[in-house]
Amino acid sequence: MTPVFIRIAAAMLLLATLGACSSGPPPIDLATLSIDSQPDANSGNALAVDVVLVLDAGLEAELLKLSARDWFTKRSQIGRDNPGSLVLQSWELVPGQSVPKRSVETPKRPIAAIIYANYATPGDHRLRLARTDNVVRVLLQASDVMVQTAPAPE
What we know:
Helix content is 26%, strand content 34%. The chain is of the alpha+beta class and 154 residues long. It is globular.
């Protein structure tokens, strides 16, 4: 091989590497979601739950600063200010109610998934799913929300 060819190949490899680094965070692999509300959830009161699939890296940081109470107060305006940047799935469950396992579909793969549960008690009541969480079960407990997850199969 000639030195010129080696230099060109090295430059192309460098550009490809830089392009991969600047493409932003990898998408998450969320495929299915279910929700189970325990009989004593939210002191026996109905509970609003939003699953926010974030499609824009800039919006992710802003949403992670919000408690559930702030999210539910501001979500309409956030949606109007960021059209096409998030996919919202909302439910209101009474204690003991469940949402069966369902597929999660978006126009493009989200870079983040955040769950907000609007409990009456103080607290953030916000969860960010890991990028490798594939099968998610949201558990609405007496005073906070938690998830059980399974990674994507290898």
